[in-house]
Amino acid sequence: MLFGRLREIVNRVDHLGSVVVTDLAEQFDVSVETIRRDLRTLEESGYLRRTHGGAVSLLETGGQPLACGSRKQENLAAKKVIAQSAVKLIRDGDVLMMDQSSSAWYLAQSLPDINLTIITNSVRIVFDFVQRPKIKVISVGGEYFERYGAFLGAITISNILGFHADICFHSCAAFQEGEGAWDNNELNAAVKKAMLRRSRSNVLLCDKSKSTHTGFALVNPADR
Q1: 87-106 burial by CB neighbour count: b if 16+ within 10 A, else e?
Q2: Cα separations (Å) of 170 from 48, 89, 202?
Q3: Given a cut of 50, is residue 66 above it in pLDDT?
Q4: DSSP secondary structure string, 50-117?
Q5: Rounded to two decimals, what is the model's pTM?
Q6: CA pair distance 180, 191, nearest whole angstrom
């Protein structure tokens, strides 16, 4: 049985689909060489497969990388800056809604262990708070979609509508000036709309690359 950092690394790989050595070293505050030794140990024990610069999960994913796992590596520096800025908006005792986006995941990584309640549909975010006892995490449940690493659908929305939050942190697939934030499928959009409806305020976690994208379903109008 694995414990401590090794167990956390395996869980991260399985949930994200793939990880990068340098990211793990930063997240666990250890050297790159230590992480490489950990990955070698885990590969020899049959928990994962090492790659050049990282590792991938041995779990079946239908031939596709998990969406959040692949998105997590995009615009990495910008997402970290956004997360650090968003943390400053959070106060002790706040109730937060967080969607399943990679930007919300980075915000989750940046949160201090203070008195907070997190309501989320993201399995990865739920996992990340295991070792921060002051933070209460509520998973809204519902139908699980492995591609997104999240719960989506009617049950999820119904559960979200049973809560109230101080701030909703969410991302988007595209942002159009004068229109607002868009997503690329109605399932994700519906969950985010429910979170926005039950939150007193909202913060869009969005880097400038989203302004060049297009979306299918409007999530958050520009005038909200």
Answers
A1: eeebeeeebbbbbbbbbbbb
A2: 31, 14, 8
A3: no
A4: EETTEEEE-S--TTS--HHHHHTTTTHHHHHHHHHHHHTT--TT-EEEE-S-HHHHHHHHH--SSSEE
A5: 0.69
A6: 17
- Which two three-digit tokens encode residue 86? 């968003």
**pLDDT tens track for 171-191:** 998 888 888 898 878 889 999
- CB contact at 8 A, 48 and 6: no
DSSP-assigned letter for residue 106: H
To which residue do tokens 């549909």 refer?
Answer: 121
Residue written as token pair 């399995």: 123
Question: Of residues 14 and 93, which shows the higher confidence score?
Answer: 93
169 sits in which H/E element: strand 165-170
Q: How far apart are CA 65 and CA 155, in angstroms?
A: 26
List of E strands, 52-139: 54-57, 95-98, 116-120, 135-139
Pull the structure tokens for residue 35: 């992480």
Give me the amino acid identity at 15.
Answer: H
What is the C-alpha separation between 117 and 166, in angstroms, rounded?
10
